[in-house]
Amino acid sequence: MAVEIRRLEPCKKELLKFIHFPTDVLYKGNAYYVPDLVSDMLTTFLPEENPAYEFCESAFFMAYRDGKPVGRIAAIINSLVNKREGVAEGRFGFVDFIDDDEVVDALMDAAVAWAKERGMTKITGPLGFTDMDPEGCLIEGFDQLSTQATIYNYPYYQKQFERLGFVKDVDWVEFKVFVPEAIPEKMVKIGNIVQHRFGLHLVHMNSTKELVKKYGDAIFSLINEAYDSLFGYSPLSQKQMQHYIDVYLPFLPLDHISLVADADENLVGVGISVPSLSKALIKSRGRMLPFGWWHMLKAIKKEKEIVDLLLIAVKPEYQSKGVNSLFFLDLLPAYFKRGYKWAETNIELESNENVQKQWQYFDLEQHKRRRAFTKSI
User: What is the pTM of this model?
Assistant: First the structure.
């Protein structure tokens, strides 16, 4: 049977088909794939829920053969990034497919046609609406457990993208950083020097309510500053900031968040980590009901093997000055208490040497690599 491409309406009923395809069909039974949280994906895809639609537009396509789903792709335009960088670039993301040339061609043709109709001259992906969405095709590390913040895909994805003429735009690497038995002495020395030299100190909150009230806006404003020059960064709007403050900050364990401030209590750096939710998401298949919420709550309170380092951000004027050491002076005692074996760094640009230097005092393994592919259209 020929491949049929259907454009989905941007409504919950239609988008649930898009969201469930990888979990229920393509990666069913795969030990390394971690399902997306369905409610998060709906919030990301629905225009009335995602503040990124203030400057983004999108289209969602699914491929069918003989009435059965065989692939999906989202086509996205982020006009804010395009304006900042002076480009006419479409994005493709949330892409999954069986290893079939006809299916891949049909999906990509649909995304490319949509982008070209809107004046785009190249297309790049896998990327999301913004950097807060998963990005990058996995090209190394297929036998490693994925995380809730990254993409898992089969090895044939790279072959298919290259067959269509896509080339490397950038690569990201990921590390497994093993939790030591004690805080490294050199890190303690550097941390003490940095605090005295720059008048910095660690900030501890008594409740998430206090954290949100005092530093909620500051955390995401700092992320905008710290990440501004990174590949394809889409600065967070005030509505986006408020969205992430409301949806995510209240549920993070306080002892997994590290804040560094100067003498005037201005935020200089933030490190946010979370107990790994990967195994909980696999058990629940990304659903909160009927018992997914219980698996998630159990992971947040009792996960003892893996901690995910979601993000680290430092004000540009303090970068490369040892501020990152303070995060680990703060967080490692909590990791020791939990008994974590290792931390997942999540994605780092392979060219970002400043970020990778922070791991020099730990035993580590570079266990994953992912790539953004691009081509002219």
Answer: 0.94
Mean pLDDT of 190-211: 95
Residue 250's identity, in one-letter code, is P
Distance CA 357, CA 361 (A): 9
CA distance 282 to 366: 24
- Read off the pLDDT of residues 51-79 as tens digits, 9 standing for 90 and up: 999 999 999 999 999 999 999 999 999 99
**Residue recorded with tokens 């259209």:** 377
Which of 332, 211, 231, 223 lies closest to 269, judged by CA? 223
Q: CA 217, 218, 224 angle in degrees (round to 5)?
A: 95
Chain Cα centroid distance, residue 83: 23
The pLDDT value given to residue 124: 98
Structure-token pair, residue 21: 């395809």
Helix (H) or strand (E) run with residue 353 in it: helix 353-356
Cβ neighbours for 48, distance < 8 A, ≥ 6 positions apart: none
pLDDT digits (tens, 9 = 90+) for 126-166: 999 999 999 999 999 999 999 999 999 999 999 999 999 99
3-state secondary structure of 349: strand
Q: Which residues contact 40 (CB under 8 A, 6 or more apart)?
A: none
Q: For the chain, report the end-to-end CA distance as a whole number of angstroms.
A: 28
What does the DSSP assignment read for 183-208?
A: --HHHHHHHHHHHHHHT-EEE--SSH
* pLDDT at residue 1 tops 80: no
Q: Give me 209's structure tokens.
A: 């309510």
* Residues 344 and 309 sit within 8 Å (Cβ to Cβ): yes
